[in-house]
Input
Amino acid sequence: MTQHGFRFAGLGAALPDKLLTNDELAETMDTSDEWIRERTGIGSRYLGGTTSGLATEAAAAAMERANVGPEDIDQLLLATTTPDYMLPGTAPAVAENLGLDCGALDIQAACSGWVYGLVLANGFLLQGQKRILVVGAETLDRMTDYTDRGTGILFGNGAGAAVIETGGGGEILGWDLGADGKYIKILWAEHGDTMLMDGKEVFRQAVTAIQRSANAALDRAGLTVDDIDFVVPHQANVRIVEAAWKRLGFTMEQTGMRLEETGNTSAASIPLALDKVLDEGRISDGDTVMLIGFGAGMTWATTIVRWAGDARSATTA
Ligand code: COA
Output
């Protein structure tokens, strides 16, 4: 589909220091480690930090791995549901911290935001830019009620970032972006308030969205499930992933997960999981990799990429 190339020159991640385990949560809420693990696959989550601070740390790590400086970045895209301020966006602060002199834009597409950002980055590359920084960063502890048994067990903070550049033999083979505003009020927050969620309906709609978006991206790419080497889904609930995989035909062995450690970090979850997967040496150049985001809105987003770039060979050898 594209001639210009799409290379993950470097990925980086950032997590705040404070870890809240399920057992610690159970001291203030009527729940248990066993219940949370069985129903969600989550064991802990990180709290603290700021969205711009975590975004800056993850982006700086990605730039270091890509061996590029601030003058090399042509565009900053920051996916977040938890901006530092209502006004302005958080991307300008991150650009300032990093010393960037380029466009800087927030993307609010909830947990699908980072994958929306990859598709937008591809558009900027098609328009002649060379290197785009795509960051997902969240401080969900600011809008989570940790006494609520539905949402309090799920969400945490973190950031992940990728430097995407032209050339290198990688490309976006297929993609799908979608939204359905009928479902706003199954997962939402009023200004200054904490999140409200109809967990069962979110679960159902998420499984449907994953299936529909994965199939749409496969169709656009002219590929089938059998052509996909590796999948990194949004890290919300392992049971959502398992239910969707049963319908699609993917296996957990070909799936990148970081949910147990981090909980649901919304727009940060896919780059955080990817960073771990690269550390483990599970993706190589030439692999066909699917990334699937889904979340509030409802929104969903899938890209299928022929992987090129950061494969961590130096650190995993
Ligand atoms: N700890 C212990 N027990 C709990 C609990 C908790 N945190 N939350 C609910 N329960 C209990 C309920 O009281 C109920 O008990 P009962 O059967 O005696 O009445 C039972 O567990 C089932 O409750 P229910 O609300 O039906 O749980 P569930 O199976 O729907 O699981 C979620 C709740 C939130 C884990 C689940 O709905 C979910 O993960 N949904 C998707 C949310 C999500 O991923 N959101 C982000 C999308 S990007």
User: Anything to note?
Assistant: The chain is about 30% helix and 25% strand. The two ends are 33 Å apart (CA to CA). Residues 7-165 form a domain with the Peroxisomal Thiolase; Chain A, domain 1 fold (CATH 3.40.47.10). The chain has two domains: 7-165, 171-309.
